[in-house]
Amino acid sequence: MTTVLDLTAIDPRRRDLVGGKAAGLAALIGLGERVPDGFCVTTWAHRDGEVPEREVLAAYARLGGGPVAVRSSATAEDLPDASFAGQQDTFLGVSGAEDLLKAVRACRDSLHSDRATAYREAAGIAHGDAHMAVVVQRMVDAEVAGVLFTANPLTGTRGQSFVDAAPGPGTAVVDGTTTADHYVLDDTPPTGHGCLTPARLAELRETGERLRDALGAEQDIEWAYDRDGTLWLLQARPITTLFPLPAPSTHPGTRLYVEFGHVQGMLRPATPMGMATLKNILAGMLAAFGLTAPVVDIGGRLYGDLTDAMRDPAMRRRLVGLMAVDFGPRAQAVVEHMLDDPRFAPLPATRRRGAAALAAGPRAAAGILGALARPAAARTRVFDELERLRREPVTDPPTTAELLDLVAEDSSRVDPIVWPVVSGLVASAALTPLLKGIATDEEIATVLGGMPHNVTLQMDLALWEVARAAAPHRDLLLDTPPHELAAAHLVGGLPDLGLDAFLDRYGVRSAAEVDVGVPRWSEDPAPVFAALAGYLRVTDPGQAPDRRFHRAAARAEAMLAELSERARRARPVRGRIAAFFLRRARELAGLREAGKFAGLYALRDRRRRLLLIGAHLQARGLLERADDVMFCDLPELRAIAEHGHDPREAITQRRTRHARELRRRRVPVALLSDGTDVEALLPARTSGGPALTGAGAAPGRVTARARLVRDPAKASVEPGEILIAPTTDPGWTPLFLTAGGLVTETGAVMAHGPTVAREYGIPAVICVPDATERIRTGQTITVDGVAGTVTVHEPADRQPADRSAGQSTS
Fold first, then answer.
1. Could you report the per-residue pLDDT of 72-98, keeping only the tens digit for each?
2. Which of 22, 44, 110, 508 ranks highest by number of CB atoms within 10 Å?
3. Computed from CA positions of residues 252, 256, 262, 263, in that sequence, does the dihedral angle turn out positive or negative?
4. Pairing, β 701-708 against β 692-693
């Protein structure tokens, strides 16, 4: 049992013994870098409880005594996705045996400080998995010190080094208590100013590049120059905040990628199988229209490569409007900004519409015009098709090979649902130009509220009826955690709540439901029970969801009649056209959710068959768990099934990467191929006051208590509360029935969440940057769905900054 080790004797792989900081220092020593002498009090000593005083003092004596730095080195520290910067204690300039032992004890105790405990919980690290070692190093008499990042931590740009420096010890730099000299270094020769000369800047950049290449990741490095001008490295660890880079493109030059998933209300990463399925579905849908769009997986999210469209003289003019409607104001702002970037200047047009695209035109026109002419018949076709899909008998072949063949079949097709759905979108989009100068955006949005024929809204109101019928079991449903209720339901351990019929029709749904790797409500109904609890808290009859919906529908019909009359008076011919489209929007726009809902049946069948394949491979000892299949692709599954390939190491790595990305709270809406978060390049948005600025997505104004929700499976919204969420998809919408308003960080006006919010008649503001960080549960806020603002009436508690830079030893 080793309780004290010299830094030169440490195996960098033994993080379990020496913690992250000491392991990182040992790696630097192994690379031949200049690191101050020191030793480590290992985790074995921590497990034994008492500080090994004799061994510590002997090691201190070998250093020659004098001032030292004493720093924490926890096993859950300096991880690839969790830096623990400043979360545990550091003591600088410690001298003498008594003060040294006191500092070692304090560092060990800081493992259980409030801030370290909270950080571990936020990072998803079990407290029992964390142990503390302590690093003791000779102090550097620093002339100048600071922090070097090998990539720009503000923009994510690789190829830019980022340096903060100040005279003397570097403590003030990492603590943020001094105004540091700031340098951004790229391929151009550095210009010296402040406390660093050009030669030292060049040395720092070269050192960072050397360490990045040797350690295999972008690095956050603490350094110091001593009075003799010698550079010492005090710490190096991965930069934890960078979003993953796009895979290298086969095309030259800079590429622009825009994130697609938030349009579907999905910011969480897709499983590998989910991503493969999404790409296949999207390619099939576009092919049916004779279109293509390069899509790539970045950090488990679906991004579209818009580079060629940006450089196309005809297409680039339409991109800004397309982004506004389909991808939201954040994507619109990015594209508008990048149109002026010379890297995306227009090139001579080379695109030609293919035969498939030309053939799709007449078919699309016929489908849309037919639905506009006979909306009732179009709706009948849609709902008949949904019912057919629900009732269609499905059989699964018995062998793994047959199941793999069935899963590999391309099931994408243009079905009877597509053109009625598109016709509703067309009718809605036509209203703004037809009513320009006649109606306000708020009045048009009112017409689109309380929309009938919406399968997601029908689902939510059906769940409301379940809640009403389950009222005799109110105490059970309110006092039992949703996951316990779900487990009991699945084994038949609950009273008859009427939930079986609901799940028979809507059990194919879930949050992030476009990912085939995510369990459906039929498998895990915990989110349904969480929503039921919220419904059962509605005591005001006037706030009953069905009544709220009917009020929104009545306002919509009244506004439709008023706008139709107003338009005819202003412009008789155009007014009659506007009146026609107003009515068709009411009759068809609610079908928007039907297209996605129909696709969920194919995903349900695909998921079931994949899990059957997983069960077969698990029985053969080739997989640890049946759902490991979701972390493979189909070629890999064939190789496993046919050749016995062992995927377990790769699956473990992918699960770890997926879990890390699940904890990521901010996903760039647009990236350049060098990792630059394009929004970081835009001028800061301001509201001209204390309000947070986003985009109005559903009209109205409400002041109420905020409720922050990151996972709809674990929360309910009290009646009247304003739901604050990163994003929403149909799996979130049961929470809307009790919400008084909605605020999201992403989205588009025509995305699922805002669409349903309008139909419930609740104000919504989308695309509010960092809303889930700037608003906390319990604050009183005002949401203005027309102005697109959110006003916080109570100051948020100050939260510790999540910096990559840690404490300096210099």
1. 998 755 444 444 444 567 898 999 999
2. 22
3. negative
4. unpaired
